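Quick question: what would this complex look like in 3D?
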Amino acid sequence: MGTAVVTGIGSWLPPRAVENAELANRLGSSDEWIRTRTGVRRRHVASAGMAVSDLAVEAGARALKSAGGGEADAVVLATATPDHPCPATAPDVAARLGLWSTAAFDVAAVCSGFVYALAAGTGLISAGIARRVLVIGADVFSSILDPDDRTTSVIFGDGAGAVVLRPGDPAEPGALGPFDLGSDGAGAGLITVRAGGSRQRLSGAEPGPREHFFAMAGKAVFWRAVQQMAQSAGAALDRAGWRPRDVDRLVCHQANQRITDHLADELGLPRERALSNIADVGNTAAASIPLALDQARAAGRLRPGDRVLLTAFGGGLAWGSVTLRWPSLGDGAGGAAAGAGEGERDA
Ligand code: UT7
């Protein structure tokens, strides 16, 4: 049976970069604490009035250009920060990309959203429902962060990344391997925005003062993230018939540099095989993996033929992993994505 093959990639960051020093005083934190506990030095933040669709359109256009231009007959947008609770944001993104009558829907799996959206796009292609799928991961977490919560405000940033999928052979470069996906709703309360849904409505009773903000039990999530990504990554490797040492590039959800380092250790991989862009963009939620891939590609740290392992973990709780050999792709960014290729480092 055929599978989905990555045939284009692009990303975009809002231009404004916020350095640690700008946040530290107000939050009773310090550049040193943020750097040593998280690895983040700066993050990009959307300006007032900039919505997630604006970022998604920029990344999507670059991915389509990298794929040689043309159409997509489905758009799958992973985001936890849609323009509105209703309708989904993907149809608006599709229309603004000139993709009319296109299947378009959002995927809500928070920080694992991009891997889930990749799986959805792969399913559309494998089932013969779509021939070219634009898969976007985009988030504007600055719109839901509690400005007084120093544990979250210092970690998250805004951004978008996208890939284009086409049908292909499982043996060719870019082919997505078997996925591992999973969830544990018993941990739902660890990463939440409590108010604004049907459980805790914004109409009627006023929500508590901070309940419409994002909240995370960071400490409880930290080791769970390491263990669950290691387990899921192991399952994806097994299904692909790869051993951990076959992996040239580990691209995990960029939640915290210490999580990335521990995950590499758990998998028995040298830490320098893990790509990292968290220093310059923070945790960009659904955008994290495609942004890291695109920046690494632009910087020459991800080369055609590299064996790549993607793995993510986040709110839900939900996780997912998949493997691919990196394909040779056209350049959709033209250097336009803010921060593209900058400041990336091998962990
Ligand atoms: O994207 C989805 C997945 N996300 C994750 O997996 C995130 C996982 N969690 C983390 O990355 C980390 O837990 C955080 C970065 C959120 C927090 O780091 P930590 O090392 O786990 O800190 P902590 O929560 O255990 O707090 C240690 C101390 C506390 O002070 P006391 O109680 O020891 O006096 C905090 O109040 O650090 C304090 N603290 C800070 N101090 C300065 C917490 N945040 C800050 C801060 N600046 N920004």
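Answer marked as accepted. The chain has ten helices and 15 strands.
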